[in-house]
Fold each of these.
Amino acid sequence: MKIGNLTLEGFAALAPMAGVADRAFRELCMSFGAGYCVSEMVSSKGIAYHSKKSAELMEISPMEHPCAVQIFGTEPETMADAARFSLQYRPDVIDINMGCPAPKIAGGGSGAALMKDPALCGRIVKAVSDAVDIPVTVKIRSGFDGEHINAVEVARIAEDNGAAAITVHGRTREQFYAPPVNYDIIRDVKRAVQIPVIGNGDVADALSAKHLYEYTGVDYIMIGRGALGNPWVFREVNAYLSEGRLLPKPDLDEKLDVLSRHITGVVEYKGERVGMREARKHTAYYLKGFKNAAKLRNLAFSMETLDDLKRLIDAIRTST
Ligand SMILES: Cc1cc2nc3c(=O)[nH]c(=O)nc-3n(C[C@H](O)[C@H](O)[C@H](O)COP(=O)(O)O)c2cc1C
């Protein structure tokens, strides 16, 4: 799979997820065989105003490559300036967000709301592609709502205006993350454009990864929620799609070791005070399916320090 001149290894990318797929989580997923990852979305206006938060979101560590910086906004020139500015963080790709459903984003005309104006999508892709000499990609949904399923039209316009690949999440903005996911529209986009297409939506394991590939014919896939508390999913997908091997789930020791690596990484990048607050939600994902999960989650949600994490891990060992 290639995006422009960039080769992606493996079979699946980690999807951009604001608030969860931060640097520490992206590094972890890449260490388990994700072939590509995308930053949390960054506001083009925030970049224009030199916001500290935007700068932090664009930081990429050496273990994360190949990695895209994802930007959102509505104004072609502001988006082009943001893309140019982001190059100092050495992304391999600039990805344009045309899929975020959140009222804060789509309500202002950005994210998934852009799909209501395909011509504007084209102008944004063109402005950004002209501004940088690395590949520019677009992440879209199936459409804005059930009456406006226009992913094929938007994908063609993006291709005509310089996009090097397209990711399609098979849901409308109106659906947010609710079922069902529409793989037919992903297949239709794949058939309609020459550039590579990345399929996205509801992949959670090796078998669902294979199904998305086979049903749609896409060139690559992207996994979001299915990687939360489950970063080894990339190892499972790679083993199955390359050799047909269904790997067993990691044992408790490995799971706890991964949890510890994950949270230590978050604290390294964000400091213990902020990092441990954020660690609570990450930890909760790992606890899914554990015996006494509700009790353990309560412990997780009171963590303040890395020592608290050690205590939680001891509690998990004794209760499992
Ligand atoms: C918490 C969360 C945050 C997300 N943030 C972004 C984002 O910043 N940019 C983006 O393009 N998509 C974002 N998404 C959408 C995902 O990238 C993905 O398209 C969606 O979750 C469907 O894939 P999945 O079924 O594998 O999770 C987010 C999704 C979630 C659950």
Amino acid sequence: MEACACESKWAELNKIIDAYRGQPSALIEVLHKAQELIGYLPQQVQEVIAKGLGVPLSKVYSVISFYHYFSIKPKGKYQVSVCKGTACYVKGAPEIIQRLEENLGIKAGDSTDDGKFSLEVVRCLGACGLGPVMMVNKHAHGLLKPDTAVKALEQYN
Ligand code: FES
């Protein structure tokens, strides 16, 4: 087996799989645990989970693709979380998400190829008065417009 970012966690991953071996219905639970452990779900991890639980690899991939929560790439250096809670939504969060997706060249739930940014959509961040809001790692940016959201990312190198 080739080396991957998950190599040092391989034993723990096998323990998780062993607990659900031959149980296809546990797929989502196992994917959650594996992502918690490793941070993302690379091809090799998908393969051992498919084999261990007895589900086709295509099924594993379709579940990962369906849920934004799951990622097949490592998180970026900067995690951009855009709020799509009700208050932010009505103040223009969808346009901000769309502009950031265009600007970064990725869809929400994905990371840029250079590993710099990952983009995710989240529920209320608890700063509705400042909506639309996004977090970049631990820093909040509020009262955003599509242009100011793109501009805000320029300060992260
Ligand atoms: S809805 Fe966005 S911070 Fe509350």
Amino acid sequence: MNYVISDIHGYYKEYLELLKKIKFKDSDNLYVLGDIVDKGPEPVKVLQDMMLRVNVFPLLGNHDYSAMKLLLAKQKGRDGLSAEEQMELKAWMQDGGAVTAKQFMELSEEEREDILDYMEEFLLYGEVKVGRGVYVLAHAGLDNFSPDRPLEDYHYSELIYHQPDYNRVYFKDKILVTGHRPTFKIDEQYRGMIFEKNNHVAIDCGAAYGERLGVYCLETGKKYYVDIQEC
Ligand SMILES: [Mn+2]
């Protein structure tokens, strides 16, 4: 089976619980649609777990992008960050990055390098074909969309910041799967639940807002949830 999850935001316990719930096994695949880090309690542990699994495919989210960029700049041991990077660092720390930065700095040099190497390989989009259809995967996006525009044409910034228009059908013959926008902000009726409409599947169930983590199975359309337990 092929599963998708998004916006884990450091909820390591809940992420493991969900994997258990779907009985995730070596022959399955899990696509993680970005925003793995920041906000929640254990972002580095989530990354380190994902790194060990060959059947987990990470896509880049805006939080992962900021984390990677700024931690990489720090790691390179430069004397200081540029004024622009200082501003970005401050904004990121205030937007949930502090927990990621702290846990990252507690690691050994080698562990830090492994994580940054891993994050540099994150995909920008995915396309998965299963029995009942084709699924296009991205963290957010697709900014400056046109149905004929090839996915590889999009700049990363068009795929990780821009929330889709959920009233619009993007692809007539494909389903667009995205995170980034918590479903209760799309429609209050979907609070804590996966949103499915207009050839969209929106899977950020608002873990970072104390709601839930959700997983969607591409083959069956089945949805699985775990409540966030605030500590
Ligand atoms: Mn996001």
Amino acid sequence: MRFENRVALITGGGSGIGAATARLMAREGAKVVVVDLVSDAAQAIAEECGGLALTADVADRAAVEAFVARTAEEHGHLDILVNNAGIGCFGRTPDLEPETWERVIAIDLNAVFYACRAAIPHMTGRNSAIVNTASISGLGGDYGFTAYNAAKAGVINYTRSLAVDHAREGIRANCLCPGLIATPLTAGAKTIPGLEPGWHDTIPMGRAGTPEEMAEVIAFLASDAASYVTGAAFVADGGQTAWTGQPNLYRYAAAAAEGAVA
Ligand SMILES: NC(=O)c1ccc[n+]([C@@H]2O[C@H](COP(=O)([O-])OP(=O)(O)OC[C@H]3O[C@@H](n4cnc5c(N)ncnc54)[C@H](O)[C@@H]3O)[C@@H](O)[C@H]2O)c1
């Protein structure tokens, strides 16, 4: 029961990594507040967790301030903030509409600032934790991920800045950098022939991660077990970023030994 009597607000809690995190924290005693753009999704997960559901667009600063205020009103304070809501985008610079760029930056980056700005006054001095869901896409470039790459890199360095600024107030701030995780966000990969096996092939573990595996990392970062961890960008990617991208020589050698091409 790592989160007994802890109040945890989770954005994007209606699906995928956020939903798994809400479930795990609730199982371990947290009073969860599930925020999502999709009202039914937030409601369903909050009901499962015995928590509070709030519907909001995290890109809307006033809406963010309102859901943080509502959480503080309900519980008197806030211990854990998980900034997890996010969207992707696809398109190289000349083809990307500025409105798409702006929306991705608004949801994936600006919203993190809005929520931290609103929440920190309710967290100060409580041995609290902020966990931001960044991405390995914030550590390097991807083909056609433009705004997503920029936003997630921003989240990683903003997390470091938060960690430095608030360390002496008892607030830790860390981010999770997932690799490919099987959620509705990445389900589209199944619809493009060859993409999913090709993607898995770039991951040393040979598979996508699960939302539950990410929830475990978020929970660790939010828990007292991580009491000396702040400013970290914790990678959980099945080894993807540990690999330089150079060819798997063993595979080519094995194929050559059989007179085939890898
Ligand atoms: N799935 C992956 O492979 C992967 C990899 C790296 C990082 N991430 C990050 O993990 C986080 C969660 O993604 P997921 O894979 O669980 O996706 P998901 O689509 O399953 O869940 C995201 C949730 O965020 C909500 N949301 C989207 N825009 C919102 C908005 N404007 N306001 C409020 N809620 C909003 C959605 O309704 C959804 O419930 C995102 O920040 C994503 O960028 C995911």
